[in-house]
Amino acid sequence: METNGTNNVTAPVLSMAEQTKIWRLEAEAYKQKEYQKEFEHYTQFLDYNLDTIVSRKKCNYVENEYNELNQKTFEDIKKYFFNYKKDSVLNTKKGLCLYGDFGTGKTTIMKIFDDALREVDHYVEQKYEYIKQRKKYFITVSTNKILSDFLREGQDSIDNLTWRVTADRFYNEIQNLCIDDLADVKPVKYYGNEINLFDSLILDRYEIFKERGKITHITTNLTPKEIFESVNFRVSDRMKEMFNFVQINGKSLRQ
Fold first, then answer.
1. Which of 98, 176, 216, 246 could disulfide-link to 106, CB 3.0 to 4.6 Å?
2. Mean pLDDT, the chain, integer
3. Tens of pLDDT along 129-179?
4. Which of 187, 182, 116 is nearest to 145 (CA)?
5. pLDDT at res. 146
6. What are the structural domain ranges in the chain?
7. Given the DSSP bridges, would you call strands 2-3 and 176-182 parallel, antiparallel or unpaired?
8. Cα 64–47–55 angle (5° rounding)?
9. Is 0.85 topped by the overall pTM?
10. Which option is the CATH number for 13-247: 3.30.300.30, 3.40.50.300, 3.30.497.10, 3.30.1370.10?
């Protein structure tokens, strides 16, 4: 016990473990306070700038506006990717499967938001110390490229999109993925064998989704019903768990 010279009140002497615990709690309280300040600033930044960022990206890809039929869907997708107000009607833990007719802007929508996500993430990394948001941007690979790479390189090409690692690759390199323009989920012939390439890819991505939280997106002209009828039950069941199915309506924007 120690004595205070002014009023003779004694105070307990803390052990090093007790003092360390107090310091740790004070540090956590400080971090939480600073995080709250940063998050309030981040919220204000998005309130004032998100529509401008998305509109700029939109203009980079399309000259004409999306038809009114898709305006609400576009807003829903924006809330999905930037859910800072926790008001998304889509499940933000799942990926997106955008489906609809040819030329309705599915690939373009994903490009717009991938670019916007990267711009906002760069801002967050440069500006804030305590905000560590989940990275939602993604790499995009067309179905044709997946197929052609597989026929040329075999399983190694699929390993790059999943979490099978080679000597020079590590688990932390796994990224969110957008499978673009899915048009055919039939087996492919490889050295005389029939390979269910899409089934295999989805099952591997499902494991990544469950164990690492990494997201897979799809754009396709097929309806969910057409996809489910073309794959086995195990794959369709996992796809229902992995994706928000979002229809993009309207006539083709391609001229």
1. 98
2. 83
3. 877 767 889 999 998 888 888 878 777 777 778 765 444 555 446 789 999
4. 182
5. 86
6. 13-247
7. unpaired
8. 15
9. no
10. 3.40.50.300
Residue 217 one-letter amino acid: H
Edge-to-edge strands of the sheet including 176-182?
138-142, 176-182, 216-220, 95-99, 243-247
How large is the average pLDDT for residues 239-251?
91
